[in-house]
User: Fold this.
Amino acid sequence: MTPTISRAERAGQEATADSVGEVGAASPPTQRVVKVLELLSRHPTDRLSLARIVREAGLSRATAHAVLTQLTADGWTVRDDDGCYGIGLRLLTVARRAEAAFPLRRTAAQHLRALFERTGDPVFLAERDGDSIVVTEVVGNPSAGWIRPGRRLPLAPPVCREFVAWAPEPARQAWLAAADPVHRDRLARVLAEIRARGYSVERLVDDSTPMLEVLAGLRDSPITAALRAQLGSVITELITIDYLPDELGPENAVVTLAAPVRDASGAVVAAVVSCPDTRLSAAALSELGSATVGAADRISAL
Assistant:
């Protein structure tokens, strides 16, 4: 028996067939669908007009209309009487099924909420997925726009240090080898400090957060490997990598603070990340670090 497939599934198959032989080739039609679904998922209780979707997704009106017409026909989105769109029941069903792939999110949620209530700082859970890190749960409203469920970041230096600090020596050396040579010595010392105190600290030079977010978004977009490498170098220059003990002063700029979550074997599989995005005294930084490590340890013990 020949299975029945929807027009959207058939279009996806055709797009896949068109890219056969092109290793890693991007699929613009797929990217357009993903842009629309990601935008609607960020406003799950709203209905967005076609004009707003065109503007925020960066699509032409004709393209957005075609994508939404097909998604609505297949139940991924809904259209109300005013011509505005929202997420559909089919997307909700798939999202609920997909949660089974991230069981840690469900068990960690109560501890993330407790940490948020204790410190007042937004907090999120980042889980490792191969060579990437995925944000799977957010509590509170982090000031950084990139912190949202589903956001994927590469496990690459100089970030995600809490995932690498406790890794076997060969893995740490491989991660360091991928770093800018200028920063390798500092990164090696920072990894040792993270192992000693139990958490990493992200800080930025001056007020470079908005620029860093834009650059990080560009690096995650479909671009050439050469341009991605150049963007990585610029991002590295904007980051002052963590704090070493003798660098702490009366006030210390802290964007995020991350502690590792381990599985039964002791491998780091996730991180609890507090997001104060402010200046803290050394004592306040240590107190937040202890609270974040405590939450991560409780999740590890589940």
